[in-house]
Specification:
This protein is an alpha+beta fold. It is 32% helix and 19% strand. The chain is built from 5 helices and 7 strands. The protein has a 5-stranded mixed beta sheet with strand order 4-1-7-5-6. Strands 2-3 form a two-stranded antiparallel sheet. A hairpin with a 2-residue loop joins strand 2 and strand 3. The two termini are 23 Å apart. The model has no long low-confidence stretch (mean pLDDT 96). Bound molecules: magnesium ion. Magnesium ion binds next to strand 1 and helix 1.
Amino acid sequence: MTRSGIGWDSHRLVEGRPLVLGGVRVPEALRGLSGHSDADVLTHAVIDALLGAAGLGDIGMHFPDTEERWRGADSMDLLRTTLSLLRSENLAPVNVDATVVCETPRLSPYRDEMRASLASAMGLPAEAVNVKFTTAERMGFVGRGEGAAAL
Ligand code: MG
């Protein structure tokens, strides 16, 4: 049986934080995502899609932002923990497709690195992980640069 899941996340962009997406730091970003963990919006959306496909709830149930132990958490660790939750249900991802919605900077130079990083945390070949980038055409909270989102 094949299952599918969907994940969505958004975080506010603020000064003084690194921009980390799919476990990859984007050095030319002038601002980064704010959150209890490293606020890696791409990885959070992937985690929610995996949990959704597995029928295991959502990221907030497993890694609540009210818990001190997740403060500053590396989202790739959360992704690896999610994989072990799936494994205990005899489930494993086959492929992942994701979209990041962010106005600036240009993220495509980091595509392969993000694919490899996410794939490695999920025990998948990089070809099984697709990462796409788009802007919001200067509309809405993404377009105004207030935040970034991922699906
Ligand atoms: Mg999040």
